[in-house]
Structures are given as C-alpha cells and as structure tokens.
C-alpha cells in the first residue's frame, strides 16, 4: 500500500507548480519502466567508435582513449567539488583524494593495453591516418591541471626566465609548459596540432583560469588552517601518480612504437616527444610546496 504521506507530498509538489497532480499520476500509470540501456545510454555509447582504417586494434585504440576521457571527466567532477566547496571538512578531501588516486592508478595500470598486444606494425601504419591529431589535444587533460594548481606551477624553469614580474593570465598562457610541444620560441613556428588546439580551446582555458583564481586545489589547501599529515601525504601521492608515474608509462609506450627499433619516428603531434613527455622536462607539480628542494630537483628520476 502507498503511504498517505507520499501521496500528500506528490499532491503538494504539483499544486505548488500550479499543475494538476492527477494528470501526472495518470502519466505515471502509463510510463514504461526505465531500463539499464536507456539510463546508461549504452546504444549511443557504443556507436561512438569510428575508425579510419580496418586494422582491428584501431578500435581498441579509440576506445581506450575514450575510456581515458571518461576517467578524466570523473576526476574533474571530483576536483570541481573540492574547488567549489569553501571550508569543506577534511574527511571529504581525504575521500575525494582516495578516489582521485584510484582513478589515476586505473590509468597507470591499464596503459599497457596500448603497448602489449597491439601490433607494432599495424599501429605504425594506422597512426599515419591520424596525423596531425594527438592525445596532446585532450582539453580535459588541461582542464584538470588548471583546476589543480596555480598557473605559475605550469611554467617550467625555462619559461620562468622568460616571464615578466607580475604576469597576467595571458602572459602565463604565452609561456605555459605545454606550448613547448609545438612552438619553436625562437622562430615562432608552430605545429598544426598546437595551432588547431589553441584556436579551439585557449580562450576557454583562459576564462576558466580567471574564474577559479583562488579556488584551485593548491590554493584551497593553502587556505586550510591546519591540514593533517594524512591529507598532505595523499596530496603528494596524487601529485606523483598524475605527474610522474602516468607520464612515465605513457613515455614508455611512445618509446616502444616510435623509438624501439632504432628508428626515431616523428609523433603524430610533431613534438620533440622524448624530451617533452618526460616529467623531468615538464616539471609539472600540482602541490610544489609539499616537496623538498631535493625531491623537486630529482622530479621524474
Ligand atoms: C600508442 C599509444 C600512444 C602513443 C604512442 C602516444 C604518444 C604521444 C606523444 C608522442 C605525445 C607528444 C605529443 C605529440 O607529438 O604527439 C603524446 C601526448 C599526449 N598523449 Fe599520447 N600516446 C599514446 C596514447 C595515449 C592515450 C591512450 C592517451 C589518453 C588520452 C594519450 C594522451 C596524451 C596526452 C594527454 C598528451 C599530452 C601530454 C602532456 O602534455 O603532458 N596518449 N602522446
């Protein structure tokens, strides 16, 4: 039997909306039950794997990138709640950081799907059809770093030498580490990969940076009165997983396909990838104040 309180609450809900409750209850009587496939949008999800060749592993390549994008979306979803919440209790930070570490661990431990079992020859043929697209153009990868730390931490030591004294958001973006993947700062020559990426996303990235000034994870932690040792350790672990361990498995895979047979191949995004992809070169840290000078000097070793 339906309890009267629910009927009363439904009645109130629609009356307050100025609607006739009976019409809605009649609708409910006719409505089909929700199913897993409609709720999860399975059929739509499974139509999103469009390949450019008939090599079997290209579909795996596409899906694994999509899985990574969904994982990044879950991570940004968690990070946004920490960024938007003022004075959140530390337990929430600890739980979210555990999740963030788990998502990143999923990325690290699954990356060998890209390396072991995918045919070296097939990959090196089908990747030519993808040029100039590159995982480098993942906007969520950049959004996650913008939410995690201040722009000044996304400038490597060479960039810091070029930066003016009181840099604006525009200045930071001019010198941000990831432009090194496609911009020759001496000649001004830019790869098509980077040019297209900037055209599509740079304004959004700048607006987001302005919007979350003072609210990045790094700044939220600095605003805490007395963060615990446990919290600091979890922040460090996340920093290390995301900015050292994951880049290193990625680099190992790039080495496997682009450099293992004595051929130093150009990547689809055209970067000097051996140098660029190394955490030691990028120097990306979300929480630099939690690391000692020595740990910073040995970053990515
Ligand atoms: C066979 C597998 C892969 C190879 C050989 C590879 C290779 C590369 C290379 C060489 C770069 C440097 C930019 C360029 O010149 O293109 C790069 C950047 C990047 N790739 Fe991959 N990649 C692989 C798989 C993936 C996957 C599965 C993802 C997941 C989305 C991904 C995401 C990225 C990101 C986010 C960057 C930019 C990294 C940064 O700026 O720190 N890659 N990749």
Question: Which key terms come to mind for this protein?
Answer:
301 residues, mainly alpha, Methane Monooxygenase Hydroxylase, Chain G, domain 1, 2 domains, binds protoporphyrin IX containing FE
Describe the structure.
With 301 residues, the protein is mainly α. It has two domains: 4-31; 46-297, Methane Monooxygenase Hydroxylase, Chain G, domain 1, CATH 1.20.58. The protein is built from 16 helices and no strands. It has helices at 4-16, 21-30, 36-40, 42-45, 56-84, 90-110, 120-126, 139-148, 157-162, 169-175, 192-211, 217-222, 229-259, 273-276, 279-282, 293-297. Helix 5 (56-84) runs parallel beside helix 8 (139-148) and helix 6 runs parallel beside helix 13 (229-259). The longest helix is centred in the C-terminal third of the chain and has 31 residues, at 229-259. It is globular. The N and C termini lie far apart (66 Å). The relative contact order is 0.11. The model has no long low-confidence stretch (mean pLDDT 96). Protoporphyrin IX containing FE binds at residues 64-65, 68, 114, 123, 134-136, 138, 141, 178, 181, 250, 253-254, 257, 267-271, 273, 276-277, 282.
């Amino acid at each position: 039997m339906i309890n009267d309180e629910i009927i009363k609450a439904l009645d109130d809900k629609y009356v307050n909306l100025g609607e006739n409750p009976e019409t809605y209850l009649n609708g409910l009587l006719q409505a089909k039950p929700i199913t897993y496939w409609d709720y999860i949008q399975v059929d739509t999800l499974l139509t999103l794997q469009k390949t450019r060749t008939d090599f079997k592993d290209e579909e795996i390549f596409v899906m694994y990138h999509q899985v990574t994008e969904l994982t990044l979306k879950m991570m940004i979803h968690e990070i946004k709640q920490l960024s938007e919440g003022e004075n959140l209790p530390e337990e929430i930070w600890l739980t979210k950081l555990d999740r963030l570490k788990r998502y990143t661990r999923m990325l690290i431990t699954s990356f060998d799907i890209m390396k072991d079992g995918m045919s070296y020859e097939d990959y090196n043929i089908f990747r030519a059809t993808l040029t100039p697209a590159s995982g480098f153009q993942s906007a969520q990868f950049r959004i996650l770093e913008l939410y995690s730390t201040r722009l000044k931490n996304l400038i490597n030591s060479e960039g810091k030498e070029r930066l003016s004294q009181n840099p604006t958001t525009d200045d930071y973006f001019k010198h941000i580490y990831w432009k090194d993947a496609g911009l020759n700062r001496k000649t001004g020559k830019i790869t098509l990969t980077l040019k297209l990426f900037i055209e599509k996303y740079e304004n959004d990235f700048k607006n987001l940076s302005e919007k979350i000034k003072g609210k990045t994870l790094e700044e939220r932690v600095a605003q805490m009165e007395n963060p615990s040792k446990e919290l600091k350790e979890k922040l460090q672990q996340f920093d290390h997983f995301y900015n050292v361990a994951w880049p290193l498995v990625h680099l190992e895979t790039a080495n496997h396909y682009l450099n293992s047979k004595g051929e130093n191949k150009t990547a689809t995004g055209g970067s000097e990838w051996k140098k660029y992809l190394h955490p030691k070169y990028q120097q990306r840290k979300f929480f630099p104040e939690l690391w000692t000078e020595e740990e910073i000097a040995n970053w990515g070793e």
